[in-house]
């Protein structure tokens, strides 16, 4: 994944944000909407695209576009930086392939210890029973 090439493919749109800010909110467009077209991306390989489509399926639109919003600060530039940082973190986190699990079996020593422990507990419980008077 080449982050410099991916950053060139991002589209930004500034809109009016909601929340605190008073009159400042009504005058400025500080909310940032970041869109990334995953289907038409040239900086990601085919395998990376498929992996991201499966992992980010709930966050993608029908056109395979990823949309992120940021309206945390009053500054448009700071919101843009935060949106880019979140986007790159999201990609890095979801491009990691999980390791395949190799099934293991218990060692001979642990099997031996388990059987001895079970025998001890069964003897302990057998001693709790009332003796037979035959």
Write the layout of secondary structure elements.
Elements: H1 3-8, E1 11-15, H2 23-27, E2 31-37, H3 46-55, E3 65-70, H4 76-94, H5 108-126
Antiparallel strand pairs: 1-2, 2-3
Summarize this, please?
The chain is an alpha+beta fold and 134 residues long. It has helices spanning 3-8, 23-27, 46-55, 76-94, 108-126, and strands spanning 11-15, 31-37, 65-70. The protein has a domain at 3-94: Double Stranded RNA Binding Domain.
Keyword list:
three-stranded antiparallel beta sheet; 5 helices; alpha+beta; 44% helix; single chain; 134 residues; Double Stranded RNA Binding Domain; 3 strands
Helix content: 40-55%
- Main sheet overview: 3 strands, antiparallel
Task: Please write the CATH class name of the domain at 3-94.
Answer: Alpha Beta
User: Could you state the order of secondary-structure elements as H and E?
Assistant: HEHEHEHH
Got a strand count? 3
Head-to-tail CA distance between termini? 81 Å
* Sheet/helix structural class: alpha+beta
**Global outline:** elongated
Q: What is the strand content?
A: 5-15%
Do you know the CATH architecture of the domain at 3-94? 2-Layer Sandwich
Number of distinct helices: 5
Low-pLDDT windows of residues: none
CATH topology of the domain at 3-94: Double Stranded RNA Binding Domain
Task: Give the strand line-up of the largest sheet.
Answer: 1-2-3
Describe the structure.
The chain is α+β, with helices and mostly antiparallel strands and 134 residues long. The chain has a domain at 3-94: Double Stranded RNA Binding Domain. The protein has helices at 3-8, 23-27, 46-55, 76-94, 108-126; strands at residues 11-15, 31-37, 65-70. A 3-stranded antiparallel β-sheet has the order 1-2-3, covered by helices on one side. The radius of gyration is 29 Å and the shape is elongated. The termini are far apart. The mean pLDDT is 87.
């Amino acid at each position: 994944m080449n982050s410099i090439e991916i950053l060139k493919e991002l589209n930004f749109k500034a809109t009016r944000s909601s929340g605190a800010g008073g009159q400042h909110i009504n005058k400025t467009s500080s909310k940032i909407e970041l869109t990334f077209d995953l289907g038409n991306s040239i900086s990601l390989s085919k395998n990376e695209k498929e992996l991201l489509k499966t992992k980010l399926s709930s966050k993608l639109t029908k056109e395979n576009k990823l949309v992120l919003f940021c309206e945390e600060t009053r500054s448009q530039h700071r919101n843009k930086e935060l949106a880019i940082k979140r986007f790159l973190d999201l990609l890095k986190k979801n491009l990691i392939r999980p390791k395949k699990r190799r099934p293991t079996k218990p060692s001979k020593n642990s099997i031996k210890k388990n059987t001895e422990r079970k025998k001890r507990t069964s003897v302990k419980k057998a001693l709790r029973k009332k003796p037979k008077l035959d």
